[in-house]
């Protein structure tokens, strides 16, 4: 089970990075937007950009790409939990789309609408944080017991290939705009994903860095985000 332990530790490290970014943006919203009587269009656009980047970073995690497909094939024990994780994901996606609708219809947001937008951002962050928590506390435990040893070896190999592809893309100057495509590949008793670089630019796996705590001046202006990974991929369609 050493391979399983190695794989789950690697996935936990990725979880920690995403969680820290979510908490950082949540702190930014609580310390700034929640204390304002109005939100400018530029602030709303900034929030939407960051939420989209965070959603993409969560959506393209290795847990989502490799572990969950393998677990679905290995056992039905996780089906109820996976359905719950999907509901949390849909809740976050709905929050982004609500804000995008506001972005397209308002020049600025005032009074009670500020509370509505802040509540939506809070729902987004809370939903994805809850999902990460459930994955680590419940999903990983089921996976450890349900996935066969040879499949763990295949998943671990896929994680290494994933990192190798990203490193090659960085050296070639392709990241973060270069595209990758996940395609299914049989591996023993499970199906895992392998990455193939493509040229259409439609799907990208963003690099993830910690979000800054951004201060907003009296005019409501703010600097452009500098440490948030920007994704070229559109939001996935809701199921």
Automatic annotation (TrEMBL):
It comes from Rugamonas aquatica. This is Hemerythrin-like domain-containing protein. Keywords: Coiled coil. It comes from the Bacteria. Residues 71-102 form a coiled coil. The lineage of its organism: Bacteria, Pseudomonadati, Pseudomonadota, Betaproteobacteria, Burkholderiales.
């Amino acid at each position: 089970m050493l391979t399983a332990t190695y794989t789950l530790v690697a996935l936990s490290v990725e979880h920690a990075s995403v969680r820290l970014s979510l908490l950082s943006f949540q702190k930014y919203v609580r310390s700034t937007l929640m204390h304002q009587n109005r939100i400018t269009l530029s602030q709303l656009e900034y929030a939407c950009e960051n939420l989209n980047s965070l959603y993409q970073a969560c959506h393209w995690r290795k847990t989502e790409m490799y572990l969950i497909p393998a677990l679905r094939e290995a056992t039905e024990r996780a089906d109820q939990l996976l359905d719950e994780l999907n509901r949390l994901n849909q809740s976050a996606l709905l929050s982004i789309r609500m804000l995008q609708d506001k972005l397209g219809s308002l020049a600025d947001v005032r009074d009670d609408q500020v509370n509505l937008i802040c509540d939506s951002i809070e729902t987004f962050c809370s939903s994805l944080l809850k999902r990460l928590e459930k994955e680590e506390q419940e999903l990983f435990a089921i996976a450890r017991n349900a996935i066969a040893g040879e499949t763990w070896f295949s998943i671990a190999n896929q994680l290494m290939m994933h990192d190798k592809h990203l490193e090659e893309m960085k050296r070639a100057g392709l990241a973060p705009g270069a595209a990758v495509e996940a395609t299914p590949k049989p591996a023993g008793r499970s199906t895992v994903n392998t990455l193939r670089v493509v040229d259409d630019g439609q799907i990208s796996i963003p690099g993830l860095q910690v979000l800054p705590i951004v201060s907003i001046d009296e005019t409501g202006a703010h600097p452009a985000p500098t440490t948030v990974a920007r994704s070229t991929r559109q939001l996935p369609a809701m199921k």
